[in-house]
Amino acid sequence: MPPRKRARTSSTSGSPSSETDVTTVELSGGWALSPALVQLWRSGRFTDTVVTVEGRSFVANRNVLAAGSEYFERHYDNEHMRDADHPKLLEHVTAAAFEPLLAFLYEGRCTFEESLLAPVLRAANYLNVAPLERAAVGALTERLSPSNALAAWTWGEELELPELAKAAKEAALKGFDEVEKIEEATFTQMQELVADDRLTAKSEEAVFSAVVRFAEAKQPAEEELLELLRYVRFPLMSKDFLLTTVRQWPLLQMTEGQKLLVEMLAPLVSGPAQQQARRGFDARFLCVFGGCKNDVNFLSSTLSTVEIYDAEANTWMAGTPMDSKRERAAVAVLGDKIYVMGGTSVSPTIYVTAESAFRATSSVDVFDRQTLAWTASAPMAAARMSLAAAVVGGKLYAIGGYDSQQNEGYRWLSSVEAYDPQVGTWANVAPMPTARVYAGAAVLNGKIYVVGGNNGNNVVGGMGNTTSMDVYDPQTNTWATTTPMRQKRSGHGAAVLGGKIYVAGGNTLSSVEVFDPQTNSWADVAPMSTSRHNMTLTALRGKLYAAGGLTHCILSTVEAYDPQQDRWEEVSPMSQARKLGAATAW
Q1: CA gyration radius for the chain?
Q2: HEC letters along 430-455
Q3: Taking residues 217-238, what's their average pLDDT?
Q4: What average pLDDT does the segment 156-180 reach?
Q5: Which CATH number fits domain 285-585: 2.120.10.80, 2.40.10.10, 3.40.50.1100, 2.160.10.10?
Q6: Burial per residue of 122-152, b for 16 or more beta-carbon CB atoms within 10 angstroms, e otherwise
Q7: Most buried of 59, 231, 363, 505, CB within 10 angstroms?
Q8: What is the pLDDT of residue 156?
Q9: Can you give the pTM of this predicted structure?
Q10: Non-local CB neighbours of 76 within 8 Å, separated by 6+ positions
Q11: In DSSP terms, which residues pair with 346 in a beta bridge?
């Protein structure tokens, strides 16, 4: 008889829900047989074997099973098994998981309830159905979160799937504070998490508290516990927490535990030079693209060069230059690609006139961080320069700016368009309430904040510069106006750091202010040492980096802001002075 459709089964991780609550998964990537052969199988005609799983019988064709599964190929190739009873799967495979696997062998795809994703992966791994295993790993990776990271990590190790194990470990590192049932981790997993410099937690006190929960549940040997504690960064904890919590923990009362504390806290004795905080998954590099190097000859001043700052080494290096010279462009990272869009684009090999040099472009150049090569991407619908850009929800947004029409001058734009890398096209979304050029954009809590800029009103002498801030919600495709800045700014930098939006410089300003979404208010912080406009501002490794721009001259200098100390300090300068460039972290 053909395989029967079963009633919905409950999730292995929770209680049954109603039929309408079921989430399904579709996996593809196999080889589909002809519809006629599939129909014969589904009708139970001309099948020649029966596979029994958990007492259920599934009819099939030996050649289909052997062609799609190394397990079945070995089974039917074994002379002792050729005329034996039909195969019975007793290990690692459930009937609920075998049903979609069998459909995958015939149709090259299958659909099932999301709760069966892990059992389907186990079945594909055990039966050696490689395309289904790859598809299931991909689907699990997309669904990783701190709540399921430890389980997925264990599956990856047990099934010898290093790609899944690595992705699950990174999910646990990124959301360490939210990892559920940390006490169920293996000792090796816990050690790898606490030892990793990328571990992201609200504090080192939180890391220690997680170790306490784990140790009290697992009761590891003293030697193992001390080994694990060596990866906890005690000098980063508050003195009060050390005295009232760490030193009072019963498992540290033994002699060796007290010796370990003395050893680990030794850096505090020499003063403020304490152990470095964990760097998390922050990017390491600051990349600056294009811009303008002087005001003398604008036909030759636009740059195609790229400079890369290494935050660990405090050094700059040359990056792969763009295929075209650009200034007044915007840049954003989406996946493994860096998109540089709009601005004024000039081919390095073509002589241009003054009129064409400052025409806005709709072109987009893409740098692939895997191949380290530039390619052209789909152009925007509108030509834009002095625009802003943001990435949210897997899409890239080009915001405002102005275009240039021959004999018509410049037009300020309120329009916004979004690029979907899945379909490779741009589409217009709701326009901003106000047209803006030289604005800043930042993403916070899934929304795009566009702040400051010039709105085109009374532009002589910068009178069109604004303090206003608009917020775009991609879920509803709507804009709203929120609390304005304290000062009018245009050509400033904007970046998100620690859940807050920072804006710096603009016009002839050195001042910096920060927006706190919890209080919906702005506050001043320490100013930059230099007034800058047409600059870049980038968050990197827990600091803000202000690079280049213009004051009384075009700048190559770079300074970094530490929010913990509320202080700016100069770092290594770029090799090339530049304004009107674009920058992002990598």
Answers
A1: 29
A2: CCCCCCCECCEEEEECCEEEEECCEC
A3: 90
A4: 92
A5: 2.120.10.80
A6: bbbbbbebebbbbbbbebbbeebebebbbbb
A7: 505
A8: 95
A9: 0.61
A10: 62, 65, 66, 82
A11: 325
